[in-house]
């Protein structure tokens, strides 16, 4: 998919994403964790986490809502960027650090991250495509291999707030 096409799709959902993030943060995670995204090809009960990371150039903190799965106790997120030809900024930024923060519903953690390889990657990708079928079309629309990131929680942290970005 051309970056311009992917950008148009993302722009149309930008207001929804901003509202989703605000709801998640304002409620401390009581709302926004499970969302019906069946209108865009997802599932009625799709789980979302928040990741908090530091910009590799700016040093600023950012919070991003993402669909997630759970494989063997690890939190799985996908750097799809709607099938764009370049990686999402959050993915490029976490590559510059060893840990990031993740919040699931009302619980937040510091976590390490890794990218699965080989057969493990294949199985995790299949699982994530089951959770959110549009990932299949996203991968077909780009020549880049969409990264999968697995987060391993280390220790609890305070839940995210608007001021924590």
From TrEMBL:
It catalyses: oxidized coenzyme F420-(gamma-L-Glu)(n) + a quinol + H(+) = reduced coenzyme F420-(gamma-L-Glu)(n) + a quinone. Pfam families: F420H2_quin_red. GO terms for cellular component: plasma membrane. GO terms for molecular function: coenzyme F420 binding; oxidoreductase activity. InterPro entries: F420H2_quin_Rdtase (IPR004378), Split_barrel_FMN-bd (IPR012349). PANTHER family: DEAZAFLAVIN-DEPENDENT NITROREDUCTASE, F420H(2)-DEPENDENT QUINONE REDUCTASE RV1261C. NCBIfam families: hi_GC_TIGR00026. Belongs to the F420H(2)-dependent quinone reductase family. This is Nitroreductase.
């Amino acid at each position: 998919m051309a970056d311009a096409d992917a950008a148009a799709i993302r722009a149309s959902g930008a207001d929804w994403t901003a509202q989703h993030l605000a709801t998640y943060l304002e409620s401390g995670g009581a709302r926004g964790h499970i969302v019906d995204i069946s209108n865009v090809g997802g599932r009625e009960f799709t789980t979302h986490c928040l990741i908090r990371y530091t910009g590799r150039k700016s040093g600023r903190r950012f919070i991003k809502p993402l669909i997630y799965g759970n494989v063997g106790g690890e939190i799985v997120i996908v750097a799809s960027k709607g099938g764009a030809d370049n990686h999402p900024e959050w993915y490029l930024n976490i590559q510059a650090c060893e840990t990031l923060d993740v919040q699931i519903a009302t619980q937040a953690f510091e976590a390490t991250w890794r990218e699965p390889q080989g057969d493990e990657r294949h199985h995790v990708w299949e699982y994530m495509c089951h959770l959110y079928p549009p990932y299949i079309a996203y991968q077909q629309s780009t020549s880049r291999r969409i990264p999968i990131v697995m987060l391993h929680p280390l220790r609890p942290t305070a839940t995210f707030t608007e001021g924590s970005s």
